[in-house]
Amino acid sequence: MLETLNRHWFLLVNATPASSDWQIDTAKYIARDLIYIMPVLVAMMWLWGSHQRTNERRHMVIKTALALAASLTISWLMGLLLPHPRPFAVGLGYNFLQHTPDSSFPSNHGTTSFTFALAFLFWYRLLPGALLFITACAIAWARVYLGVHWPLDMVGGLLTALCGCLIAQLIWNYQGRHLHLALSRLYRLCFAVPIRKGWVRD
């Protein structure tokens, strides 16, 4: 039943040879490149910003890193334990994005982008979190549209991201202060020159 719905939803979203070139090209940009905005944004939050909110922003960055590590580990394990072929591997629909025929569930792109979005929603601000969540949904749509993922791969990515954020919060509750101090010392050691020159925040 669930697999039937998955296939039906996929065919509703998947592009066809009748789709215009600009639609395919736009979807490829969203599917492959839009995700890079997220780690750049998180890095900027650590390196720059007002002194008054430095700790808040860096706490969020650390939690995000923990959530990513947890969610991608879960995704990797699920891919090993519950392998699922991609649509083009079973000859369904059309594929417009080159990809290896490995397990599709859950989507690593979906897991990563939803983890960033949920991190901002849970641990920072509603507006940037909502914008990143919309971005994550666009990435999820594009990868289904181009034929490299099933819709339920993206639902799985969202649920995996939720689990990763939960694990990150639990780790933070027990070791957050120590992690912040240790990473701050490492940062000041590695970025001593840029900090001294005022290029990045202390």
End-to-end separation: 55 Å
Our count of domains comes out at 1
Share of helix, binned: over 70%
Total beta-strand segments = 0
Rg calc: 19 Å
Structural class: mainly alpha
Shape verdict? elongated
**Contiguous uncertain segments of 5+ residues:** none
The helix/strand series, from N terminus to C terminus, equals HHHHHHHH
Quickly count the helices: 8
Textual characterization of the structure:
This protein has 202 residues and is mainly alpha-helical. The protein has one domain. Helices cover 71% and strands 0% of the residues. The chain is built from eight helices and no strands. α4 packs antiparallel against α5 and α4 packs across α7. The chain starts with a helix and ends in a 6-residue tail after the last helix. The model has no long low-confidence stretch (mean pLDDT 91).
List keywords for this structure.
transmembrane; 202 residues; PAP2/HPO_sf; 8 helices; PAP2/HPO; mainly alpha; transmembrane helix; undecaprenyl-diphosphatase activity
Describe the SSE topology.
Elements: H1 2-13, H2 21-32, H3 37-47, H4 54-81, H5 108-123, H6 126-145, H7 151-190, H8 192-196
Helix pairs in contact: 2-6, 3-4, 4-5, 4-7, 5-6, 5-7
